[in-house]
Specification:
The chain has 135 residues and is α+β, with helices and mostly antiparallel strands. It has 2 domains: 34 residues; 96 residues, no CATH class. It contains 2 helices and 8 strands, in the order H-E-E-E-E-E-E-E-E-H. A hairpin with a 2-residue loop joins strand 7 and strand 8. It is globular and about 40 Å long. The relative contact order is 0.15.
Amino acid sequence: MRQWIPFVVPAIGGALIVAWATASGPAAAVAEQRPAPRCFLASQVNGFNSRGRDSVDVHVGANRTYRLTLAGYCPEVDWSLRVALRTMGGGSWICQGHGMDAEILVRGPSGVERCPVSDVRALTPDEVAAERHRR
């Protein structure tokens, strides 16, 4: 029996390593495709791109982008270099699928324009890459 121990222990250890590597491969791939969190704080926004006069893409943290669809016409947003994002209703979070959580504030020739957000949607990495190629 003692003759088998040196062989059995490395064989079991090798089998565990192979099983762990196989299991972590698909899990790592799933983690890369995981959607962005559904909510973010307005203070986490570090940039934006206008998508015309009815939507804005905001960049959150290092690698998340959310599309904010505006409730109506917001004429100043598509040429503005700066916008502000303000939460509504006393909460701090802006969440996907919850319209009217926020509004975009844009300075225009007649003062500050308030543009309510009607929809929030996290963009996938593929959508973000496609947007970069369009510019």
